[in-house]
Amino acid sequence: MDLKKTNAPVNTITYNKSQIEERTGNVYEAITIMAKRANQINSEIKKELIEKLDEFATYNDSLEEIFENKEQIEVSKFYEKLPKPHALSVQEWLDDKIYYRNPNQD
């Protein structure tokens, strides 16, 4: 997932309920689908962040000295400025990029 190319809002905005429920016909089902996608996005972002921070990690047994690593700070700031996973999932839902199926309706 390319987080830099998303057009999801960083701040909270209000969406049209009928636009959200348009594909499923049920707002609760649409919200459940978006929530599951938000959990997937969150785990992907967390995994990516941990991998990037581990590159800069220094393993030191001494607790006396704590070094500030500027690269770690910059990576953390970048991820803090990203849209939240729920905003990304709502944007994917509105852009029709989420595949879903209901096994009860087959």
UniProtKB/TrEMBL annotation:
Entry's family note: Belongs to the RNA polymerase subunit omega family.
Q: Which organism does this record belong to?
A: Flavobacterium macrobrachii
Quickly give the catalysed reaction. RNA(n) + a ribonucleoside 5'-triphosphate = RNA(n+1) + diphosphate
Name of this protein: DNA-directed RNA polymerase subunit omega
Quote the EC number.
2.7.7.6
* UniProt keyword annotations, A-Z: DNA-directed RNA polymerase, Transcription
Q: Which GO terms describe its cellular component?
A: DNA-directed RNA polymerase complex
Q: Which Pfam families match?
A: RNA_pol_Rpb6
